[in-house]
């Protein structure tokens, strides 16, 4: 499994493919080419001095007669946790605030209107350990926690919407924890919050020991720059989760994540991109970077040796568009800021061409799913009818024994 030594798929293709082949491969793997944004040199210099990657791309839509282009710039931030996991909690939080503040400065230089940080961005992804302290001390109030106040200042200073995925402590409801994204308007006001709807129970992602599935549904936030939603990490494996944000009108869906190569790297380029296509919207997939070592060993429940690290977080953040195009990914091994300029008119244009909303047959699925979730439901499986045919039975089987074996395979309790 590749660690930091392997930079990115894009670097590998560019290094090894002749230009004509590279063009064709990119056409198929990345769709219509995104235009490279010309970013201010002060931004490029600041990023380079701060040792983080800066890339910028633009997605274009066709000109329309009655609507002006609706361009918005989004910024995706991927980073490693700056301090070791055994540093004091307050110092870890402060260090990652300083790191992200520096990256947000550069985003502002690049004209970013909406910035989104990675999942649980103020902390190491410690849920693998199943330990409570000190990790639950990273949880904060959405309304007036230190991190929300930090994001409000950033939002006001840069006239930027800030999407801040944190570990939430809900002080108003029994101090319980949630995996939450806070949306701060460019005015500096907290516009609202949304919670992770699907909690992983896979590998070392032991998050179900800390918080429950979100209870806020699929809110969409009307910002000055467009309608946005946040589908947190593991939610990207659930097509209906993306769908519901889109049904509520999301034009951009952020997917702040924390995931490792051994588990999901081959899924990564597909899922958010497919969601952009299927839902006629833009999606922004963000993943953290690097390795995080924990003070105590933990096991993965797979018989293998206890260990102290989670695996390699492979970065590779990217933006995907409803016309199937996508930006290249940021690298697998560096902190980075990806700036993408989107023309939101592309969403309706793709809707008019492909008509997935019009042809979606949602009423049929609503009816069938409403039945399927009932305890009394039995799946709609069509069996061959038992009739006496003049044909000879196949060697060694009678029609009766075939039916008997079929039904017992499907459901041992069926008559
Ligand atoms: N953070 C999180 O939900 N990770 C689960 C693993 C994955 O979805 O790739």
UniProtKB/TrEMBL annotation:
Its main location: cytoplasm. The keyword Ribosomal protein does not apply. It comes from the Eukaryota. GO terms for cellular component: cytoplasm. InterPro entries: Aliph_Amidase/BUP (IPR050345), C-N_Hydrolase (IPR003010), C-N_Hydrolase_sf (IPR036526). Residues 72-344 form the CN hydrolase domain. This is Beta-ureidopropionase.
């Amino acid at each position: 499994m590749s660690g930091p030594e392997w930079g990115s798929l894009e670097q590998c293709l560019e290094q090894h493919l002749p230009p004509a082949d590279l063009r064709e491969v990119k056409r198929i793997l990345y769709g219509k080419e995104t235009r490279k944004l010309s970013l201010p040199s002060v931004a490029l210099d600041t990023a380079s001095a701060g040792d983080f990657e800066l890339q910028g791309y633009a997605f274009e839509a066709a000109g329309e007669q009655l609507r002006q282009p609706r361009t918005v710039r989004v910024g995706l931030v991927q980073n490693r946790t700056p301090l070791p996991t055994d540093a004091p909690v307050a110092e870890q939080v402060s260090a990652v605030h300083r790191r992200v503040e520096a990256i947000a400065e550069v985003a502002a230089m690049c004209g970013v209107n909406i910035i989104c940080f990675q999942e649980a961005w103020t902390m190491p992804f410690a849920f693998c350990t199943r330990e409570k302290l000190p990790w639950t001390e990273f949880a904060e109030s959405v309304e007036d926690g230190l991190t929300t106040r930090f994001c409000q200042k950033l939002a006001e200073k840069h006239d930027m919407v800030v999407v801040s995925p944190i570990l939430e402590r809900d002080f108003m409801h029994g101090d319980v924890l949630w995996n939450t994204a806070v949306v701060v308007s460019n005015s500096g006001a907290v516009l609202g919050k949304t919670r992770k709807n699907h909690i992983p129970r896979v590998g070392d992602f032991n998050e179900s020991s800390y918080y429950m599935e979100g209870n806020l549904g699929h809110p969409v936030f009307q910002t000055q720059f467009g309608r946005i939603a946040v589908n947190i990490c593991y939610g990207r494996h659930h097509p209906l989760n993306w769908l519901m944000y889109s049904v509520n009108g999301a034009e951009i869906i952020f997917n702040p994540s924390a995931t490792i190569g051994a588990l999901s790297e081959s899924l990564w380029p597909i899922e958010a991109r497919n969601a952009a296509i299927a839902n006629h919207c833009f999606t922004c997939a963000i993943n953290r970077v690097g390795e995080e070592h924990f003070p105590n060993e933990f096991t993965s429940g797979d018989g293998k040796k206890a260990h102290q690290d989670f695996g390699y977080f492979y970065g590779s953040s990217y933006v995907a568009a409803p016309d199937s195009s996508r930006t290249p990914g940021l690298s697998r091994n560096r902190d980075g800021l990806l700036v993408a300029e989107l023309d939101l008119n592309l969403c309706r244009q793709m809707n008019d061409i492909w008509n997935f909303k019009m042809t979606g047959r949602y009423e049929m699925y609503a009816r069938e799913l409403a039945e399927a979730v009932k305890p009394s439901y039995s799946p709609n499986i069509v069996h061959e009818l038992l009739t006496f045919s003049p044909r000879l039975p196949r060697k060694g089987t009678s029609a009766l024994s075939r039916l008997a074996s079929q039904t017992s395979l499907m459901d041992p309790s069926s008559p």
